[in-house]
Amino acid sequence: MQLDSIAVALRPRNPWEAIDLGFDLVRTWWKPIMGAWLAVVLPVSVIIYLLCWKAPWLASLLIWWLKPAFDRVPLFILSRAAFGDTPDIRQTLKGVLPLWRKSLLWDLTLGRVNMARSFNMPVRDLEGLRGKARRQRLKVLQKQTRSGAVWLTLVCINFEMVLNFALLALLLLLLPQTLQGDFFTRLFAPDQSLWLQMMTYGIYLLVLTTMEPFYVGAGFALYLNRRTLLEGWDIEIAFRRIAERQQALNKVTPAAALLMMGLIIGGMLGGAEPSLAAETAVLPATIKTPVMPESPERLKKQITQVLQQPEFQTDKIEKQWKYIGKKSQKNQPKADSDWVKFLAGIVPGLARFTEGLLWLLLASVIVWLYLKREHWLGWFAPKGTATPFTPAQSLFGLDLMPESLPKNLSEEAWKLWQANQPRAALSLLYRGALARWMMRDKIVLGANATEGDCIRLFRATAPSETGDYFYQLTQAWLTTAYAQRPPGTEVMQQLCRGWDIHFALPP
Q1: Given its phi and psi angles, is residue 128 left (phi above 0), alpha (psi -120 to 50 degrees) or beta?
Q2: Of 148, 93, 181, which Cα lies nearest the Cα of 449?
Q3: What is the pLDDT of residues 371-397, one digit of tens each?
Q4: Is the pLDDT of residue 37 over 60?
């Protein structure tokens, strides 16, 4: 730690002031932090998503679990920039790689569930301590600071959740009205559409990129503040600056002395004798009148008047624990003392192990709730108030009643095509596709829905191959109905065969 080049105003702060200082550090050096962060996180996120594209929830879980590895990037930059040496992206990657090799295994296992992780990372990375030395160092540094680090973790977790839900709500507001009603059902559905998977994954990465550097910066500021309190860094810096100013004065004083000697010698060589008037003009200015000391009674009266001011009338009572020594243990057997020492040795480790098990249990419950979402989401559905599903009877002026559709719809459409009635043939195929789709998937469309809304909603609910067929059928119907340009015979044959594949009722 080169305190001479530090770029942070160090002074004793409470934990919340130190956290605010960490946020300010991230805002100051956000450009190098974001550049190195994106250079590391983006490639890893893309690789993880490509490996887990069939289970997007697993990709988000892995990114969340790898947070300690990503946190090394802003910590490395802040630890150098705070002492006047801001690294670039290449220097950051070169400096972070050794840290990953040394501590990645611990960070992703027992260290991952530590609530004071942001405060503990600088001790491991910047001081390079391991094993018993690191535990003893943490025991000293965490006094009066661990609670602030734990609260920082809890607050950041809540902020991440709020930002995630807020961005999902924004996505919901930007969706068409026909897609909004069933948005959350699709969000938790096992077979999400590709665009929804990518949007939710991208939203989580955006939230992670926004919050995590501030979390690391606040933990680093807590570490700096704790070392300032213990080691008096602010006092050391003040003394060093005083010494620098004194050295500067010592360098100036000989030059000033030479200048005065030169002026005196020049006056003597000039032969000018100072006149009596000049002497009498100078002497009174140089003679100081002695100041008589104040009498004790007057000083006491002045002190009493000062103490009677309102600023000195505030009383404050403070209580603190004071160690009064060990109690007498003459009457206690030695076995009890040994048993207490044994418990004192194993209880801290047992507490950390229990805390890790509780965090693993919480993660397991969250994963189980996600996998069983189809079961418990049904508990929140209103019971007894559900209205029976009634499909739309007409849409765009087309009759969608099942009674208006023939049994062998594709054959009837092909007969109409051969009878030189392309509009009627494509209308029959299109009406049949809409009617079967709404009945099969329980789709409710508003009276103001358009063909484009049907295409978007169809692709969001149906398999990709069926969605492509419906898009082709809709385009053929639109060009025939509005542009009077029917498709070719081969295209019509493909549409008839495809209708039997995607919409025909099972025998």
Answers
A1: left
A2: 181
A3: 777 666 666 554 544 445 555 666 666
A4: yes
CB 477 within 8 A of CB 427: yes
Question: At 343, which amino acid appears?
Answer: L
Which residues neighbour 207 within 8 Å (Cβ) at sequence distance 6 or greater?
160, 163, 164, 167
What is residue 251's predicted lDDT score, i.e. its pLDDT? Answer: 62
The DSSP bridge partners found for residue 399 are: 394
Distance CA 88, CA 96 (A): 12
In single-letter form, the type of residue at position 97 comes to L
**Closest to 486 in 3D by CA, of 436, 407, 413:** 413
Neighbour tally for 408: CB within 10 Å: 11
Which residue, among 413, 406, 400, 505, has the nearest Cα to 449 in the 3D structure?
400
Q: Rounded to whole angstroms, how far apart are CA atoms 476 and 430?
A: 9
pLDDT, tens digit (0-9, with 9 covering 90-100), for 250-283: 665 555 555 655 665 655 555 444 443 333 343 3
Structure tokens at 215: 């979390």
Q: Would you put residue 442 in left (φ > 0), alpha (ψ -120 to 50) or beta?
A: left
Token readout for 129 is 């301590």
- Residue 216, pLDDT score: 92
Between CA 380 and CA 184 the distance in angstroms is 13
Q: Rounded to an integer, what distance in angstroms lies between the CA atom of residue 362 and that of residue 365?
A: 5
Output the six-digit token pair for 239.
Answer: 């003394």
Q: Helix/strand/coil (H, E, C) string of 321-364?
A: CCCCCCCCCCCCCHHHHHHHHHHHHHHHHHHHHHHHHHHHHHHH
Q: Which of 263, 252, 205, 242 is nearest to 64 (CA)?
A: 205
Whether 330 has a pLDDT exceeding 70, the answer reads no
What DSSP string describes 59-84?
HHHHHHHTHHHHHHHHHHHHHHHTTT
DSSP class of residue 505 equals: P
CB 70 within 8 Å of CB 76: no
Q: How far apart are CA 128 and CA 363, in angstroms?
A: 31
The secondary structure element, H or E, covering residue 398 is strand 398-399
| Alpha carbon separation from 173 to 162, 177, 193 (Å, rounded) | 16, 9, 18
Strands (E), 129-178: none
Instruction: Give the separation between CA 23 and CA 377, rounded to whole angstroms.
Output: 39
Residue 47 has a pLDDT of 92
Distance CA 118, CA 146 (A): 10
Hey, which bits of 188-231 come out as E strands?
none
Exposure string over 78-90, b if 16+ CB within 10 A, otherwise e: bbbbbbeebbebe
Q: Which two tokens stand for residue 481?
A: 């109905």
